[in-house]
Amino acid sequence: MCSFKSRFGISPWFVFLAFFAVSSVAMAQDEIDFASMDLEDLLNVEVTVASKSKETVADAPSSVTVFSRQEIQNMGIQTLQELLNYVPGFQTGRQQEIGTWYDAVSSRGRRTDPGSPEVLFLIDGQRLNDYWRGVAGPYNNNMTLSNIKQVEIIRGPGSALYGSNAFLGVVNIVTSNDRNEAGGSFGSWNRREVYANVSQEVEGMTLSVSASGFADEGDTYDQMPEWFGQNIPTNDPIEGFDGYVSLSGERLRVNLRHTQRHQEDFRQFGNVSNGEQYSNEESSSFNVSYTFVKNDKLDLKGTIGYLRNQSDFYGIVFPRGVLESFGLTDQPDAAFGGTVLLSNQSIGSFDGVWSFSEKNQLYFGASFRRAKLENVSLQNNWDASALFNGGPFPIEFYNDVRETFGLGETGTREVLGIYLQDKIQFGKFKAIIGGRYDDYDDFGSSFNPRGALIYSPGTSKFKLMYGRAFRAPSQRERTNTDLTFVGNRNLDPETVQTIELAWIQQFSGGQFSLTYFDSTIDDGVQLVEFSQGGGTVAFQPQNVAEQDLSGIEFEGQFQVGKHFIVRATFTNFLDTEENPRQVAETLGALILNYNAGRFNFNLNGYYHSEVQSSAVDEASGEFVTIDSFFKANLAASYQVNESFSLNFRVLNAFDEDYYTVDNIIAFLPNGLPGRGRSYVGGLNLRF
Asked: For residues 233, 235, 236 and 240, what is the CA-based torsion angle, rounded to 10 degrees?
């Protein structure tokens, strides 16, 4: 078992740094204050996620959504996963497979592995997805937004720049390194939050330190179904810590990051074992970038980085007496189990822009990534290998928790990637064409082109975009071996080809975009029944799925009168996954922000139409339907003076009973319940 049980052993060091910086700094830094911007300024905020260079959303050769820090604070949104429900084509849902619970992300009508390997997550451009499952969510669940400048999202393919996992979306979190503030809050379920962001000039460079922590005792679920038809009450407590240190200058930037999450109770492996099941997740990284050349002709930057992900979760597998009732053991104990996982990846890259003229730029770069799986093992209080190997019986129970055997092969994967793209402007047209080549040492290579043509007549922009993307098979998909899931070394990468048509219209007081996309997935990975011999059947991932995805996405921001800003999104999927359809066909979100002097009020919410569970209704023979829902939040703040403000939030304001599809349907055919209404009040201090 991992030593994580001590919980947050490194966090006092970060808290000390933050406290020291707060105590010693009296210098406020110049910063962009989004609160004082009008709507026109907000619409022209620059992003880097689409080309690795600064450009507005309207000029980007991809479908891009961006949220500024101030918008997120006004909304009272606490986590990245919650924010993504306000992005066209994106939806999140609760999961219980990896850890006790986290939110899995679906993009553009597809839902596969619950860890969301089809979406690439970045922080300041650094990859967060791991090697074992190709996912980022479980290690970064409930990712806080206390130290960001903005969040940038590519809706659609991004492999032409970023390689694998940028399949149906890319999410880039851009951190802030020029803020001096601290805050805290308290609320329902004994919710506690505290954060501090501090920056100071140090010999021509800016040192920025951020630390945040949160904890709550969780909502109460009185009727949580369990084995033998029982309903067991439980809670979903969680606590977390995030620390970030940045040292930046004109050419050099160094980032250090550490996050931890601890969860207890609720559900794990489809069961409840209050006080005995837990989930610990840890992610640490550093990233160093240096600009070697920066002039009118050439901009060349090099980067090295390292990421380490660790997971340790444990819960009930078989309740008391179940194994005994099948004659597999002579002991009535409950069988507990879980997984210990440790992986890392190192990366080196360079990115450059060569400007032939103001109207012609060549973007180029290369990267080398080495991913390593150090450990992936079952941990149990019983001899799980006996059940896997057909004996010996009766199964032995231990007096402690032991790592019993490996779930898959440890080892390394090395990836070399090279990309090139050219951007040229002629008259009212701008054309972008290029691609990326990735070579993997364990399964082969993949080339992914992209192209875009942007026409700008006046205040309108019309985009025609094409992109090809891929998702490399994860080590789990290739080598996992357990009772239910057998790896497949012959897996090929999934590929998707996407065509997009977009119309962006700017006008006095606002902007809207209307996008049509059509995606074709080839060699899609799907779980297929697989015989292990001896009458034992498991599931194996195979390249047997072909899928069409298409839909219409709307996004708009409007100034209504002097005090109101309205932001709205709408998505309708014309083609999506079926049988069962585990994603909502219709999505919508609305943000109403009212600002009058020192007072700001925000009402926001999102809608998901009904979905289908993979459980089948015995009476009708149809998949069980999970109802649609609208979840709303209220947030208000009052600026007492230039330095001090108060805030208040009501989350799930209408106390909506809502459920999302869970990947483990045992006992929960109608979905996994979400949290009810809660209240949080707090304060913020700038210095």
From this structure: -160
The strand pairing partners of 631, in sequence order, are 606
How confident is the model over 144-156, as a mean pLDDT?
Answer: 93
Q: Are 290 and 251 in contact (CB under 8 A)?
A: yes
How far, in Å, CA of 412 to CA of 425, rounded? 43
Kindly list the distances between the CA atom of residue 182 and the CA atoms of 6, 139, 195, 203, 209, in Å, as whole numbers in the listed order. 26, 25, 6, 24, 11
Q: Nearest-5° angle of CA 184, CA 187, CA 192?
A: 45
pLDDT tier at 42, thresholds 50, 70, 90: low
Question: CA nearest 516: which of 443, 464, 445?
Answer: 464
Separation of alpha carbons 111 and 127, rounded Å: 21
Residues 6+ apart with CB under 8 A from 126: 255, 285, 287, 305, 307, 347
* Angle subtended at Cα 619 by Cα 94 and Cα 539, rounded to the nearest 5 degrees: 50
**Per-residue model confidence (pLDDT) at position 296:** 92
CB atoms within 10 A of CB 523: 18
- Asked if 496 and 468 touch (Cβ cutoff 8 Å), the reply is yes
Write out the two tokens for 56.
Answer: 């507005």
DSSP class of residue 43 equals H
Determine the Cα–Cα distance for residues 97 and 90; give it in Å rounded to an integer: 21
- Spatial contact of 132 and 341, defined as CB atoms under 8 Å apart: yes
Beta carbons of 276 and 265 less than 8 angstroms apart = no
CB contact set of 119 (below 8 Å; sequence gap of 6+): 105, 107, 136, 165, 167, 168, 169, 170, 171
Q: With helix as H, strand as E and coil as C, how does 311-350 read?
A: EEEEEEEECCCHHHHCCCCCCCCCEEEEEEEEEEEEEEEE
Task: Name the pTM for this structure.
Answer: 0.92
Torsion angles phi and psi, residue 529, rounded to 5 = -60, 135
- How many CA atoms does the CB half-sphere of 233 hold within 13 Å? 4
Enumerate residues 6+ apart whose C-beta is below 8 A from 246.
175, 177, 206, 207, 208, 209, 253, 254, 255, 256
Q: Pick the closest to residue 193 from 634, 648, 680 (CA basis).
A: 680
Report helix, strand or coil for 82: helix
Alpha carbon dihedral 350, 474, 318, 271, in 10-degree steps, equals 60
Q: How far apart are CA 379 and CA 371, in angstroms?
A: 23
Q: What is the pLDDT of residues 635-652, one digit of tens each?
A: 999 999 999 999 999 999
What is the spatial distance between Cα 235 and Cα 685, in angstroms, rounded to a whole number? 33
Q: Say which DSSP state 490 is in.
A: T
Question: Do 281 and 138 contact (CB within 8 A), yes or no?
Answer: yes
Pair 571, 552: CB distance under 8 Å:
yes
Cα–Cα nearest to 423, from 444, 451, 455, 442: 451
Q: What is the pLDDT of residue 529?
A: 86
